[in-house]
Amino acid sequence: MTSAARPNNRERILDTALTLMSTHGASATSMRRLADACGLNVAAIYHYFPSKDALLATVIEERRYGPRLSEIPALDPSAPTAERLRAIFAEVWSGALAEQQVWRLLLGEGLRSEPAALPVGSGLLDMFAQGLTAWITSMVTEIDQPAAVSQLLIGQLFAGFIRHIFEPTTNTDSIRDVCVDALLAAIDL
Q: Cα–Cα distances in Å, from 34 out to 13, 21, 116?
């Protein structure tokens, strides 16, 4: 959703903050720079967000990953194991591509050890692992260690996303297929 389509200042600030932070990093996105980009004064930004740390946390919280991960996608339980795991990976891959700004923001801030981003990113990883473990437990019941497979899936997701960043012209479906093939090979499927 574009900034112009958001109905109020708080949402416009969040949209603009995500764009600025994912492009320039949180440390380079001052509250003044954000206010200028929103066409507001700095006091308006602080009215909604008492600090840049609170702003960053809210940018991520507003994406509602927890509720989204609690919705287990419907899969044919009679489909082969590999096919169901491919479907799970495809679901999270398309979600990652749709949320590129957030991924770029958190990866960049994590690499820079940005104090505000570390707990947000860590919490998001935990939530993501729990959600995927629940998906695998529910949809691929023959997997003996769903938490371990969830971690492998997350690792392949990150590997694919990093490849997408460094090879932006590579077809994302090709990247997805390479990653899911590696996942299936790692668990002997």
A: 7, 9, 17
